[in-house]
Amino acid sequence: MRKIILSVILITMLVLSIFSIHFLVESPTLGAHIVELKLDTGDTAWMIVATALVLLMTPGLGFFYGGMVGKKNVISTMLQSFMAMVIVTVLWVVIGFGLCFGPSIGGFIGDPSSNLFFNGVSANTAWELAPTIPFILFALFQAKFAIITPALITGAFAERVRFWAYLLFMVLFILFVYAPLCHMTWHPDGMFFKMGVLDFAGGTVVHMSAGWAALAGAIFLGKRKVQKTNPARITYVLLGTGLLWFGWFGFNAGSAVGAGSLAAQALGTTTVAAAAAAMGWVFLDKILGHKLSAMGASIGAVVGLVAITPAAGFVSIPHAMAIGIIASVISNLVVSKFPKGKIDDALDVFACHGVGGMVGMLLTGVFASKAINPIVGDNQGLIFGDPTLFLIQLKALVLVSIFAFTISYALFFIVNKITPLRVTEEKEELGLDISQHGEFL
Question: Is the Cα dihedral 159, 160, 165, 171 positive or negative?
Fold first, then answer.
């Protein structure tokens, strides 16, 4: 049955790709937040680079996660990230972009009908909020955010998930969790956008959604047979951290959608927050009586990158440092106190990405300044004496948490009804590299 379904999907995609001739015509149609392109070659060049940098983060994540799992699960874990680049890219072109940035349906989701197969996604028009770069470049930049989000989730159910079930979950997650959150947060007609929620590069859309989905997956799949395994390659973790940190400059500075002062500010806050968080993590480890470890420094840096993501273009450099330190301390404590005997979040995705994203969202409401970004307006952060923005961020945090966890858990339930999510005990003991892919290190 699986062979028949896959054959039908491939044939259908091929036929639609070949015969949908009008989709290949670059339409200059304006309206629905699509405007005339005011091409700036500097902005365009930077955004091409930023798009490539964000894509690099996903294989970086593969190394980061792959080094943490046991030796018999390295290939499968890394392949989960790689296949996100494959599946989500195709899904994005076919329907995902339209769901996120198509004409709004009630402020909740986009209407994909006008952008199926990138219909109307032209190199000669522009998105309203990015008028100096081609619309197609904006769409491809956003695709890289969609790619890495389900890949982040995989760390929670590492070493026990069936690969084909994961692929199905990934598709459903993009359609029913990522797309609504992206539309609500970043579309001018989105519900959160109109509320005044500030999320510069993905605190809600990427990290909170992935964190809560990870927790749902860890609960639904249950514990591994052996929860404590030695990391296969700590050098992979260091390499992955470096690639993530490097790519994150595209993630955050690229979200300025231009090569200007805001991009420079976001780049600065990003690297400072990561460094401060890595320092905070290893210093706290030492205070608590642990050794200063490569794993700790790597995880701390990534937590800082997560936490600064929603705030990157709204806060000062010193406040970015504070965000990094606060987030790393909180995430470190959550990791140490997390009930691992009951909930097996294998690589602490919720504690790092989920909690880090939530801390970043709230601290955006504390430190956001109109001196850094005029879009903040009069509702500045709590530290400037106005609680309005902080309360808006808190409200969004609660709504996103409930939505992401509930829908993700439902999707795990549905996928498990279609095809079992979890490998058998025998295959888990053998290792996913051999049992799922017939390969080994």
Answer: negative
Q: Is residue 31 very low, low, confident or very high in pLDDT (cuts 50, 70, 90)? A: low
- Is 39-424 CATH 3.30.420.40? no
User: pTM, whole model, 2 decimals?
Assistant: 0.95
Q: 109 in the Ramachandran plot: left (φ > 0), alpha (ψ -120 to 50) or beta?
A: beta
Distance of alpha carbon 297 from alpha carbon 397, whole angstroms: 27
4 or 419, which is more confident: 419
Residue 55 amino acid letter: L
Region 169-178: mean pLDDT is 98
Sign of the Cα torsion 428, 353, 219, 147 reads negative
The position carrying tokens 């790597």 is 298
Q: What are the residues facing 161 on neighbouring strands?
A: 422
